[in-house]
C-alpha cells in the first residue's frame, strides 16, 4: 500500500529475493516542484498501484536509479507512455527493450523541478541519489541498506557476516567489489551530504525518519576521507 512519508513523498515496500536472501524493495513517489510525479525504482505494476499513483497526479518521470533497480520499470513505461524514463547510460546495453528518454549524466537535459540528482562516481552500479528539497528527503537504492533484524535464517546469517545486520550500512561484498574509484565515490557522497535532508529512503529496508545525514555519513565512513597526493 502506498503510504505518505513526507511533504510530496509516498512509498511502498514489497518482497524481493536475491541470492536466496529475503529482503524488501522500496518504490518511492516524489512530487516535483511543478506538481508532476516521479516514480523511483517501481515495484511490479498492479491495477491497485497504478490507480493509487494516478490518484496523486500526473506521472511525468520514471526513474531507474542504477543498473539493478529496473526490473519492472518497463511495465510502468507501457502504462504511462508520456512519462520520461530516466536511467544510467550503462542500463541501455542491459535492457535493450527499454525506451530510455534521458541518461542520468546527459548534459544540457532538462532538470526535474525540485529534485537534485547526485551521481555516485566510481560505483559500478552507476547509481544516482536524489534529494527532494520540499520534504528534506534523500532517496537511494543500493548505496546503503537498512534491513533491521530479519527473521529468515539465511538472510540473518548473511547480513551478520557481511556487516549490515541491524544497522545502516553497505554489505561488505559490495564494498569489496562494486567500487572501482573510492576517491571519486567519496567525493560523490560528500556532495550528497552537502545537501540539506533529514530523512532517507533506502532501496532495501526501512526508511530513516530523522538524523539521516548523520546515518549516511556514518555508513559511508569506510570510504577514504582525502584523495591521495597527485
Write up what this structure looks like.
The structure is a single chain. This protein has helices at 47-56, 73-79, 91-94, 153-161, 172-177, 182-193, 212-219, and strands spanning 3-6, 9-18, 21-31, 37-40, 59-63, 84-87, 102-103, 115-119, 128-132, 137-139, 199-201. It is α/β, with parallel strands linked by helices and 230 residues long. It has a single domain, classed as Ribonuclease Z/Hydroxyacylglutathione hydrolase-like (Metallo-beta-lactamase, Chain A), CATH 3.60.15.10. The strands form two sheets. It has a seven-stranded mixed beta sheet. A four-stranded mixed beta sheet has the order 8-9-10-11, covered by helices on one side. Helix 2 links the parallel strand 5 (59-63) and strand 6 (84-87). The protein is globular, with a radius of gyration of 17 Å.
Strand content: 15-25%
The SSE order reads EEEEHEHEHEEEEHHHEH
With strands numbered from the N-terminus, the spatial order across the biggest sheet is 1-2-3-4-5-6-7
Shape: globular
CATH topology heading: Metallo-beta-lactamase, Chain A
CATH class: Alpha Beta
The total count of strands amounts to 11
Q: What is the overall pLDDT average? A: 94
CATH 4th-level superfamily: Ribonuclease Z/Hydroxyacylglutathione hydrolase-like
CATH architecture: 4-Layer Sandwich
For the sheet with most strands, the description reads: 7 strands, mixed
